[in-house]
């Protein structure tokens, strides 16, 4: 394989979980931008944002993307807002297949309703409010090479298989 696989999408779409499984199945090293930031800062991403501010977090996110993109033939799971930054998008696209894990607001709500302390942007938000935030972000994801829907009762193994099937033709 000559390219990285980059999973993007809104928070709660399963980028980390699906990414670990796809990487394992394909024998690739796995990187997660939020985990990278957490290791560098010695605190969860939510704490970085709360204690140091959103601008600092955006800089940390750029740092993570820049360093992770030095690797080749890896799978990268990104934070939900990573592609909002044009520099991040350019770096990830340069040698990567961008895979949008797309979900409806209802799915995101269900997947995140018990982890609001880690997901400050949607903490306490209704499905309608999540829908509005998602609508603003969709422009960031719409230019991806592949889109995989992760809604409803789709079994995670089915989603993993779908990602693998869709990326294989683009891997060389």
UniProtKB/TrEMBL annotation:
Substrate binds at residues 34, 80, 137. Mg(2+) binds at residue 16. Keywords: Amino-acid biosynthesis, Aromatic amino acid biosynthesis, ATP-binding, Cytoplasm, Kinase, Magnesium, Metal-binding, Nucleotide-binding, Transferase. It is found in: Cytoplasm. Its main location: cytoplasm. Pathway: Metabolic intermediate biosynthesis; chorismate biosynthesis; chorismate from D-erythrose 4-phosphate and phosphoenolpyruvate: step 5/7. It catalyses: shikimate + ATP = 3-phosphoshikimate + ADP + H(+). It comes from the Bacteria. Gene3D superfamilies: P-loop containing nucleotide triphosphate hydrolases. Its EC number is 2.7.1.71. GO terms for cellular component: cytosol. Its cofactor is Mg(2+). Binds 1 Mg(2+) ion per subunit. GO terms for biological process: amino acid biosynthetic process; aromatic amino acid family biosynthetic process; chorismate biosynthetic process. One of its GO terms (molecular function) is magnesium ion binding. ATP binds at residues 12-17, 119, 154. It is an enzyme of class 2 (transferase). The keyword Chloroplast does not apply. Monomer. Catalyzes the specific phosphorylation of the 3-hydroxyl group of shikimic acid using ATP as a cosubstrate. This is Shikimate kinase.
